[in-house]
Amino acid sequence: MLAVDQINWTLGVEKAFGKRDLNNFKEHMNQDINRIVKMVRGQLLPMLRVTLKALVVLQVHGRTVVQDMIDQKVTDMSDFKWSSQLRYYWEDKDMLRVKMVTAVIDYGFEYLGNSPRLVITPLTDRCYRTLMGAKNL
Fold first, then answer.
1. 81 vs 12: CA distance, rounded Å
2. How confident is the model at residue 89 (pLDDT cuts 50, 70, 90)?
3. What's the topology of domain 2-136?
4. H or E element, residue 104
């Protein structure tokens, strides 16, 4: 579910670039976050609650990235601010690829368990860039 959310986020941002309308996409993200938060506040099975909380963390990070790009007036997908993000693409038949800067790695569909996430920070992004670059090499 989290990987699919990241595919949709990547696709949404890139479509927003095409329309030159990141602000509208950010508002769409706000609505999604509000819907998920409303679900988390309701009656849920414990494991579903953990998954949805992790989804909120990813969504909030994605919204922050979009807001940063709006603030920095990023309008092109080739801008480093966008290419340096961890992006998920469903390509070919049954192939999920993760891209960051120049690194392209096939997603292994690993299951790491349903665990809570606290936050994703700029340091987390820097670690992802370093690890993706090293794996790519």
1. 16
2. very high
3. Methane Monooxygenase Hydroxylase; Chain G, domain 1 (1.20.58)
4. strand 103-106
Helix (H) or strand (E) holding 88: strand 87-91
Tokens of 5: 């959310």
Neighbours of 59 (CB within 10 A): 18
Of all residues in the chain, the percent with pLDDT exceeding 90 is: 75
Pairing label, strands 95-100, 103-106: antiparallel
Q: Distance (Å, rounded) from C-alpha 84 to C-alpha 71? A: 16
pLDDT of residue 105: 94
Provide the Cα torsion 106, 109, 92, 98; round to 10°. Answer: -40
